[in-house]
């Protein structure tokens, strides 16, 4: 085998091994962050849960905050993909009839049912937000992450809203920020009210309030 081919194959194997190591560390961090809190979670705890040493951790992440952002990127990507699948399946069924408050509510509810935001992710996000509020250095990265998340989500939802003949009555990113805040509050309320399961999908408050909120924030495209 020519040396250059052997070198390329070795690099591919090492890249795949490194990717698996990162994935295991991210999975372990997800569990530990939810169990102990982001602040209390140590590099040693995460490494041990993943079955690695501290050296393996620091070969992939400089800090546990960097690891959190890698986890957030993965979780958000899953949710964006799920939302796009819903757009591709649900919106073509809407037809050309004007959306009423009731039909818009039914549409929003169907999208909520696609989500599987679990209890762990809600807790981990809330924990990290508190950490960012206490640490100015972390806060700067958190604000940038949150802004990027909202921009991506706004682009996706604004296109979906336009495809059914509607537009937001305020700046789309501001509207999406309001919707996201209500949804997160609904998730937290469901947990506080005693939901002990791993999954808290489409909590009652979101089902009740989001359709009315979306209706209030949109209007037909004239």
What is the gist of this entry?
This protein is 76% helix and 3% strand.
Structure description:
- This is TetR/AcrR family transcriptional regulator.
- Keywords: DNA-binding.
- With 222 residues, this protein is mainly α.
- It folds into two domains: 61 residues, Arc Repressor Mutant, subunit A (Orthogonal Bundle), CATH 1.10.10.60; 153 residues, Tetracycline Repressor, domain 2.
- Helices cover 76% and strands 3% of the residues.
- It is built from nine helices and two strands.
- Strands 1-2 form a two-stranded antiparallel ribbon.
- α4 packs across α5 and α7 packs across α8.
- The chain is elongated.
- The model has no long low-confidence stretch (mean pLDDT 84).
Strand and helix layout:
Blueprint lengths: L2 H34 L6 H8 L3 H7 L3 H27 L10 H14 L4 H16 L1 H28 L2 E3 L3 H21 L11 H14 E3 L2
Helix pairs in contact: 1-2, 1-4, 1-6, 4-5, 4-7, 5-9, 6-7, 7-8, 8-9
Instruction: Indicate the multimeric state.
Output: single chain
Largest sheet features: 2 strands, antiparallel
Which architecture of the largest domain does the CATH hierarchy give at level 2? Orthogonal Bundle
Q: CATH class of the largest domain, please?
A: Mainly Alpha
**Number of E-type strands:** 2
The low-confidence parts are: none
Helix content class: over 70%
């Amino acid at each position: 085998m020519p040396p250059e081919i052997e070198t390329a194959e070795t690099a591919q194997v090492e890249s795949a091994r490194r990717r698996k190591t990162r994935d295991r560390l991210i999975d372990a961090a997800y569990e530990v962050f939810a169990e102990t809190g982001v602040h209390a979670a140590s590099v040693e705890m995460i490494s041990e849960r993943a079955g690695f040493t501290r050296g393996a951790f620091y070969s992939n992440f400089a800090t546990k905050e960097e690891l959190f952002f890698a986890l957030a990127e993965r979780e958000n990507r899953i949710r964006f993909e799920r939302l796009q699948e819903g757009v591709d399946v649900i919106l073509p069924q809407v037809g050309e009839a004007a959306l009423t408050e009731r039909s818009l509510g039914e549409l929003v509810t169907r999208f909520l049912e696609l989500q599987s935001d679990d209890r762990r992710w809600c807790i981990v996000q809330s924990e990290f937000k508190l950490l960012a509020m206490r640490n100015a250095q972390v806060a700067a990265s958190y604000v940038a992450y949150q802004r990027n998340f909202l921009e991506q989500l706004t682009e996706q939802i604004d296109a979906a809203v336009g495809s059914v003949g509607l537009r937001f009555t305020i700046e789309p990113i501001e509207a999406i920020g309001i919707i996201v805040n209500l949804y997160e509050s609904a998730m937290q309320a469901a947990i506080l009210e005693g939901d002990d399961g791993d999954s808290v999908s489409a909590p009652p408050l979101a089902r009740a309030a989001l359709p009315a909120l979306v209706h209030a924030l949109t209007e037909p495209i004239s």
